[in-house]
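The step that takes the researchers longest sounds almost clerical: writing a folded protein down as plain text. The outcome of that step, for a single protein, is printed below.
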Amino acid sequence: MNILLVYKEADIATYKMLEGLSKLEDFNIYIASPQSYTDKNIYGNCTPLDLPVITSKFNWNVIRALRKIIKTYRIDLIYSPSSSGLSNALFASIGTRAKNIAYRGTQAKLKRFDPTYYLGILNPAVEHVVCETKDIEEYLSRFIARKRLTTSTKPFDIDWIKEAVRTPKQADDIPDDAFRCIYIGATKNRPFKGLTDLIDAFILLDDPRVHLTIVGEYGENDFQLAQQSKVSAQIHFLGQRSDAISFLVTSQLFILPSHRDASPRVVREAMACSVPCIVTDIPGARDLIIDGVTGLLVPPSSPQQMAASIRSLIDNPERLEAFAKASREHIIQDFSVKAYTDGFATLFRSIKKA
C-alpha cells in the first residue's frame, strides 16, 4: 500500500507514526513537503519527496507536483493533516485511484453553507476524517457520516523531553523553597486561553510560598494586571522561549486555564516530566488527565475554584507526589506511539480495501 503525507510541516507524533508504518511489509510511505522541512524530519524507511511551498488552498504548482507524485508512485491513500494540504491534494487526485484522508484537530465551527469548506473537509471526495478528540468527532458527525470518522488522540513519548530533562531551567528570583507553578502558551490577543483567570487565581490565593512562571507571548493587559497586584513579585513573565519545556522540569504544578482548547501538547509534556496538572473542564483538554489521579479538573472561567485547587495541592504534598508519579505512568501507558501507529495501520488498511 502506497501512502502519501501532504503537509508543510507535520509534528513529531505524525512523523513517528509514519516511521512505524514504514517498517511494516505492506506499507510504502512517501512524505511530500518543502525540502527544508522534510530533510530533518524523516524517520525509518519513509521516502521524502520535494514539494513547492503550500501557500493557499489552490496552488497550481503544488497541485501539478502532487499529481505527478500520485501517478509516479501509484499512491493509494493521501493523508493531509492541514486544510491547505488537503485542498490541494483533492484537486491533484481527481481522476486517480488515490483516496483522501483528512485530519481535524480543532473545535472551530464549520459552516455548512460556506463554499470554502467544500474545498476541504466537507468535500465528498474526503474518504475519512481522523479526529483528535471525541468531542471533535461528535461535532463533525453533524456534517459527516459516523462511519467516515475516527478519533485518534496524538501520542507522546518520554524520549521527546530528554533534552529538557538534561537542561532544567528556572526563572530568576524564585526562592529555592518556593512552590513552583507554570503555564506555557501564547496568550497575546487570545483571551480564550484564560491567562487573566490564572492571574486572578494567584491574586486570590495570595500565598507568598507560591510562584508562577508564564512562558509564551503575552498581552500587555495581563502583564499589567499581574504587575499592579499584591503578588507581582511572585509572577514571572518569560515571553516566548524555544526552551520552554526545560522550565517544566523544575516545576511542581502545571495549570491550563483555557476556556477552549483542543488537545494541548503541553499537558502531555508536563505529565511526561512528572508534573501534575490542573486543567479546565473543557472538551479535549479534560480527556488528557485523569481527574483525582494525575491532576484536577476545574470549571473554566473560575479563578476561585482554580485558587482552591492550587491550595489543596500545596497543603497535601503526599497527594501531589502521587499525582506526579501517576502522570508519568499515564503518558507511558496510555499515550503510546505504537498504539497510535497500530490504529492508523488498521484504519488505512480498511480504507484501502473499501
About this structure: Residues 317-334 form the longest helix (18 residues).
